[in-house]
């Protein structure tokens, strides 16, 4: 059975290995040069000096250095967003054909009548594809996590949308989910193209819903406040995921949303000045998910997608045992 | 005589349609049985049930004394050539043999290689480069390499040209000539099977219409020709299968229960093909009968 699985899918395995190698060939040199630029430009040292204090008071932040750096590597950032689709490829080209191709070509009637029960066939095939998916997607996740480190530190943060999605452990869970969805769709539609279409649609819809509607609400958001008047401002390089910002008056009512204002005490009270509209006691607020919640959020979301993958595989086995008869 | 395959009240429903209904039949061991019926009559369903690919909706099915669905040990004793002879197109012939060796416990690799060699098929040929006839031969060789006690073939020659059909049937008959293997093969054309089978099952619209040894069936059915008359009970006739009338003459195809004493009838032997066609022209039991003259 293991030999047969390898013989049937060795081309897909080879393509995946080549794809991973090609990705490494792109990411490793650019990653090294990005790290060099990160150090050589002084950004690394600057960020070290600023440290992880929540608020900064002096004039030093690394904003301008970070801007130069992120502008220079804007293409890399865009490229990393495209990598978010890699797990989908596993679902389309590994998952969907696994059962659907056999059913479409009738070869299930060859292989299920040889002397191996179809349950054993299914478990061996599913086990091997899960193992292969885990290995390949872990390689991809490690590579991209390493590659994105300087961009994360430069202020983009690991929690920002589509940055969170390509590092840590979630890429493995997405890939497992995509593969399981493809396998399950194959047992329902029993032809490769419809199974691929269903896996594509299902994957994109669920990923989008979780990204937009679930992830931000899993852990409670925190509120950070700092006065309108005064020199204290939040450290921009913490990498927090900021949902909303605004200004509240002393009574805690929102008087302005979407903006943050800081005035030095010298300009307060000047008519027509930027701070003329705000009463004393007004303060800025930020609703945010702290950067420190990166790993809890990663494990929660990875757990969700892995559980869905397990459920889909059990449903696929159930369909093979009870519905394709 | 032991029974290789036995069904009682067997039925299989797909969603709302019964592909096979109330099917009772048996195939004695050692026979070469032909399963004949038009497309959609339930032949593939019966064979897929027999090899455990499908689970019966109702009734009982025993293959070599066992219930086939989910019985892995039985799979080793049954060879199956599925409809359209599915094979992995990117495998070489040698890889298909390896696959069989890895999946089946009674696999005879030298036998498989020897058969391929006799067919003139190089082991390194890919399946996708084979002709339809060669593919069918490879599928047959794979089924035979299990040294099966029961060999099931689902429309093995339906897509082959006449020459390839004859070659396929020759190889099949050569392989099972020892009589240890029971063969059940289906076709929508009797002509493909007439010369090789010694047992016949006629299926139509999910029902068994006719069942029995070819020699017995041919000898107990007769064509009667006589002057035109209304059908009445005729001594020695168990059932009238088909009747046709001209102005002066009545022709009946009947199943006899003994000699026909009435001298008004001339009695002729029938061919197997006449017999099958007559049964296929009969309405299936349980279906509304339309336009039958009383």
UniProtKB/TrEMBL annotation, chain A:
Keyword match Nucleotide-binding: no
Keyword Membrane on entry: yes
TM helices/strands, residue ranges: 79-100, 121-148, 168-185, 192-210, 295-318
GO MF annotation list: ABC-type transporter activity
A GO cellular component annotation in the UniProt record: plasma membrane
Keyword vocabulary terms for this entry: Membrane, Transmembrane, Transmembrane helix
Protein name (Swiss-Prot/TrEMBL): Transporter
Organism: Planotetraspora kaengkrachanensis
Automatic annotation (TrEMBL), chain B:
Bilayer-spanning residue ranges: none
Domain ABC transporter intervals: 5-230
Record GO terms (molecular function): ATP binding; ATP hydrolysis activity
Keywords: ATP-binding, Nucleotide-binding, Transport
Highest taxon of source: Bacteria
Pfam families: ABC_tran
CDD domains: ABC_DR_subfamily_A (cd03230)
Name used for this protein in its record: ABC transporter ATP-binding protein
Lineage of producing organism: Bacteria, Bacillati, Actinomycetota, Actinomycetes, Streptosporangiales
């Amino acid at each position: 059975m293991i030999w047969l699985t390898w013989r049937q899918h060795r081309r897909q395995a080879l393509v995946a290995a080549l794809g991973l190698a090609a990705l490494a060939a792109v990411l490793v040199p650019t990653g090294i040069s990005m790290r060099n630029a990160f150090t050589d430009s002084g950004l690394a040292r600057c960020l070290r000096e600023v440290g992880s204090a929540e608020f900064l008071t002096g004039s030093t932040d690394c904003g301008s250095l970070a801007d130069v750096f992120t502008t220079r590597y804007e293409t890399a950032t865009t490229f990393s967003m495209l990598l978010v689709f890699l797990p989908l490829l596993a679902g389309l080209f590994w998952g969907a054909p696994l059962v659907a191709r056999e059913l479409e070509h009738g070869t299930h009637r060859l292989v299920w009548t040889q002397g191996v029960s179809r349950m054993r066939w299914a478990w061996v095939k599913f086990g091997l594809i899960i193992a292969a998916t885990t290995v390949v997607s872990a390689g991809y996740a490690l590579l991209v996590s390493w590659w994105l480190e300087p961009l994360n530190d430069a202020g983009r943060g690991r929690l920002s949308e589509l940055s969170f999605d390509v590092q840590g452990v979630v890429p493995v869970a997405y890939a497992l989910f995509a593969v399981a969805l493809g396998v399950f769709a194959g047992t329902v539609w029993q032809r490769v193209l419809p199974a691929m279409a269903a896996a594509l649609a299902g994957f994109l819809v669920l990923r989008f819903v979780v990204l937009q509607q679930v992830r931000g609400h899993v852990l409670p958001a925190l509120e950070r406040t700092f006065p309108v008047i005064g020199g204290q401002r939040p450290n921009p390089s913490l990498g927090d995921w900021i949902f909303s910002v605004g200004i509240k008056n002393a009574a805690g009512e929102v008087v302005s949303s979407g903006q943050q204002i800081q005035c030095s005490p010298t300009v307060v009270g000047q008519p027509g000045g930027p701070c003329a509209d705000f009463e004393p006691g007004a303060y800025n607020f930020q609703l945010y998910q702290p950067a420190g919640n990166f790993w809890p959020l990663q494990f929660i979301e990875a757990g969700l997608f892995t559980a869905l993958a397990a459920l889909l595989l059990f449903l696929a086995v159930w369909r093979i045992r009870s519905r394709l008869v | 005589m032991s029974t290789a395959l036995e069904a009682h009240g067997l039925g299989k429903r797909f969603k709302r349609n019964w592909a096979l209904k109330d099917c009772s039949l048996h195939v004695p061991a050692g026979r070469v049985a032909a399963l004949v019926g038009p497309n959609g009559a339930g032949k593939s369903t019966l064979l897929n049930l027999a090899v455990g690919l499908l689970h019966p909706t109702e009734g009982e099915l025993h293959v070599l004394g066992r219930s086939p669905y989910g019985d892995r040990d039985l799979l080793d004793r049954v060879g199956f050539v599925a409809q359209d002879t599915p094979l992995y197109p990117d495998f070489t012939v040698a890889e298909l043999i390896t696959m069989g060796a890895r999946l089946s416990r009674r696999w005879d690799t030298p036998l498989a290689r020897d058969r391929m060699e006799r067919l003139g098929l190089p082991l390194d040929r890919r399946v996708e480069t084979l002709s339809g006839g060669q593919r069918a031969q490879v599928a047959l060789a794979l089924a035979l390499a299990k040294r099966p006690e029961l060999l099931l073939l689902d429309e093995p020659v339906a897509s082959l040209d006449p020459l390839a059909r004859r070659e396929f049937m020759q190889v099949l008959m050569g392989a099972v000539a020892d009589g240890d293997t029971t063969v059940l093969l289906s076709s929508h054309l009797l002509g493909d099977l007439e010369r090789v089978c010694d047992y016949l099952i006629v299926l139509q619209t999910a029902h068994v219409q006719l069942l029995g040894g070819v020699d017995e069936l041919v000898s107990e059915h007769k064509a009667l020709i006589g002057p035109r008359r209304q059908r009445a009970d005729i001594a020695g006739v168990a059932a009238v299968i088909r009747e046709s009338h001209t102005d002066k003459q009545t022709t009946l195809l009947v199943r006899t229960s003994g000699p026909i004493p009435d001298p008004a009838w001339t009695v002729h032997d029938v061919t197997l093909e006449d017999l099958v066609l007559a049964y296929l022209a009969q309405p299936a039991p349980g279906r509304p009968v339309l336009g039958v003259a009383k």
